[in-house]
Amino acid sequence: MRQEAAALYQAQLRFPLIPAPLTDALSWLPRARLTALGDGLLAVLLMLLTGAADRWLLGSSPTVYGAAFLVVCLVCAAWVRPTDLVATPVAVPLAFTAGLFFISGGTGSQSLTERLTNLFPVLAVNALWLYSGTLLAVLVVTVRKIALMIQQSRVRALMEAEDAEDEAAAEAGGY
User: Fold this and answer.
1) What pLDDT, in 10s, does the model give residues 102-124?
2) Beta bridge partners of 80
3) Residue 6: which of 161, 145, 166, 168 has the closest Cα?
């Protein structure tokens, strides 16, 4: 009986802090199921693709790359498993750096050493995007963690109330 009540209560609290119209509008999105490794790999893959597309289509525009990074941070922070929330703020700066390899400037005939040497000044120049995206990931992860803690405390309170009710019924019924 406790498990049924907890499952029912969890279903009612799927998004405990988000208003119902917004929950309905976002219901088509998949639930958070990426592991920490999957979250990091998704971020790196998306940023590598973004960096390559930015270089080949737009001529290495840092603004487009930075805006795409913000979107990747939001997506990764929203779709990671609740148990792996701490991984997203660690993974997204690494993904940002990986994608910068493509837009770090220079010609296509540069050696790997020259490209890596050009990467660090570009990383310093684009630090605002890096910090903004990381902060966005931290904020989303923090809100999700707080919502999860509230949900768990409500489920715990419901289970304790049902246990007390069952004990009272057992005492009153003489079981």
Assistant:
1) 887 766 677 778 878 888 888 88
2) 34
3) 161
